[in-house]
Specification:
Layout: H1 5-13, H2 19-33, H3 44-57, H4 78-87, H5 93-119, H6 122-134, H7 136-141, H8 148-164, H9 171-185, H10 192-204, H11 208-231, H12 239-244, H13 258-282, H14 288-307, H15 315-327, H16 337-340, H17 344-363, H18 366-403, H19 413-428, E1 435-436, H20 440-447, H21 460-469, E2 474-477, H22 482-494, E3 499-505, E4 510-515
Parallel strand pairs: 1-2
Antiparallel strand pairs: 2-4, 3-4
């Protein structure tokens, strides 16, 4: 019997005929349905945009918002450089967000390509791509001006190139993978696990010449960045110091002991398994009990997918082990989906590979194995889509208000007050005024007044000495940060005669206080 023309047309243009178009298109649709036009409120996005401003202005790679404008040493320069170039067309956060959408869409494409390369199963690869397209964490980060999408994209290019060139006979793939890996290392410091994974994989495969070339190029390029930072005058702490704090927001608690570092590792394994991982796949609003159940359910096939590769660990598996080992050592105050995002593509591939392996071990027949694997994959995709749908109404409502002129739509009220105070400061204070505040990057973006964050210390004299050393004229007492009430407010209360009211806004108020310098200074 002849197949109906409409069915034939669907076969030619369906998702199995053009899988990359379908999975990438699905991600773009979800990204725009949940698009959040307001800036990320953590502050790092302002940092990246201001570093781009610094590069574009000819000042070099500097922290423009600090009074002395020192050389910046914390974040590698690739992502700010990309924003600087894009800013030549339009220096707009909304335009920068479109770059993030493009990068996360690229991640989806390479998840599909990596899964297909590893499994030679087009349907399973389609499942992997579709799951990546719908995963709430990737959809969420598609609208933030942060370096994670760029890092994850470059990471996926490198993993795909070295996986496809496992025999070491393609100079083109080796060059592509090497370039992507070095650029990833110059996008986030978390690129070092990728570098280590590639070196070990090349050495294990006895590709000695390629290993030497890769290592030489990496040392040359990334060594130049390291040397530049060693020679730069900067007061910023290296990441190794932040990792060792018991709590980066309470440095008075000191640094961890070896026993505490081991305890933190295993506690983070628990947190990521029972909370971060399931909420990455099912949405941030999953209840504690549902997240725990879903996390264990996901962990089993992920571990199975890794176990089946134990005798032939490749670059992807080695990166996953090294990277997650590093993440599990980070302070628990920073345990979040943001740190998991770069490992997410490998997690998705291992998850579906492990699911197929378990199904094969239980069902035995190839046809039923495929059906079980595809059914589980479809269920995972459904859960991810549902996680997006649960927040879609709120996201669309916020966007409507934003485009209608209410740019503070869905901001926490205290953060909106902080930004309003910054706007007032821009018009109501001298251009050379220095303002101590909790988020100096955000404050500078709106106020164009330099300043720095107060030190995290319970000693009022130390905070007052810091304000004096900054030559500050103003101090902001915000209403959203716990550290402000823990450190800054007690210091002000101990020296009330040195402060006066310049402006206040909100209820409870956010204050802009004048600061009177110590007599004779």
């Amino acid at each position: 019997m002849r197949e109906p023309q409409s069915s034939s047309r669907m076969a030619r243009f369906g998702p199995t005929a053009y899988p990359l178009i379908w999975v990438c298109g699905a991600h773009v649709v979800l990204a725009f349905l949940l698009f959040d036009p307001k800036p990320f409120l953590g502050g790092d996005n302002y940092w990246y945009m201001l570093l781009a401003d610094s590069l574009r202005s000819g000042e070099g790679y500097r922290d423009l918002w600090l009074p002395t404008m020192p050389a910046h040493t914390r974040y590698p320069p690739v992502y700010p450089a990309a924003l600087a170039i894009l800013g030549l067309l339009s220096n707009s956060a909304l335009v920068f967000k479109l770059l993030s959408v493009a990068l996360t869409t690229g991640v989806v494409a390479f998840v599909f390509k990596l899964a297909k390369e590893r499994t030679s199963d087009g349907e399973l690869a389609l499942m992997a791509g579709a799951l990546a397209a719908a995963t709430p964490i990737l959809v969420e980060y598609s609208h933030w001006v942060l370096s994670e999408p760029a890092f994850t994209f470059l990471l996926m290019v490198a993993l795909y190139a070295f996986t496809k060139d496992r025999e070491g006979d393609s100079a083109r793939l080796f060059a592509l993978g090497t370039a992507a890996a070095i650029l990833a290392g110059l996008t986030r410091s978390a690129g070092y696990p990728l570098i280590l994974a590639i070196v070990i994989a090349l050495a294990a495969g006895r590709h000695w010449k390629r290993c030497a070339i890769f290592l030489g190029l990496t040392v040359l390029v990334m060594g130049a960045w390291w040397l530049r930072n060693r020679l730069a005058v900067s007061g910023d702490l290296p990441y190794s110091q932040w990792i060792l704090f018991r709590d980066p927001y309470r440095p008075e608690l000191g640094t961890v002991t070896t026993a505490e570092l081991f305890a933190r590792f295993f506690e983070n394994v628990k947190v990521y398994t029972l909370s971060v991982l399931p909420r990455s796949f099912g949405g941030r609003d999953l209840s504690i009990s549902m997240a725990s159940i879903y996390g264990v359910t996901l962990a089993i096939p992920i571990l199975a997918g890794g176990f089946r590769q134990i005798k032939k660990l490749g670059v992807a598996e080695l990166f996953f082990v090294f990277y997650m080992g590093l993440v599990f050592l980070w302070p628990q105050a920073w345990s979040d989906q943001r740190l998991l995002l770069p490992a997410l593509p490998v997690v998705i591939v291992l998850l579906l590979e492990g699911t197929a392996w378990i199904a094969r071990a239980i069902v035995k027949t190839e046809q039923r194995t495929a059906l079980v694997a595809y059914a589980v994959g479809a269920l995972l995709i459904g859960v991810a889509v549902l996680g997006n749908v649960r927040v879609m109404g709120e996201a669309i409502g916020c966007s409507k208000q934003y485009w209608g002129g209410n740019h503070y739509a869905c901001y926490p009220r205290a953060m909106a007050d902080f930004i309003d105070v910054a706007n007032w400061t821009r018009d109501g204070t001298p251009a050379d005024a220095i303002v101590v505040n909790r988020k100096p990057q955000i404050f500078y973006w709106y106020a164009r007044r330099r300043g720095d964050n107060y030190p995290y210390t319970t000693d009022p004299d130390s905070i007052m000495s810091f304000i004096e050393a900054q030559d500050a004229s103003y101090v902001v007492v915000d209403n959203w940060s716990a550290t402000t009430y823990r450190y800054l407010v007690p210091a002000i209360q101990a020296r009330t005669e040195r402060f006066g009211l310049a402006h206040q806004l909100g209820n409870p108020p956010t204050y802009l206080l004048t600061y009177r310098k110590e007599s004779g200074r």
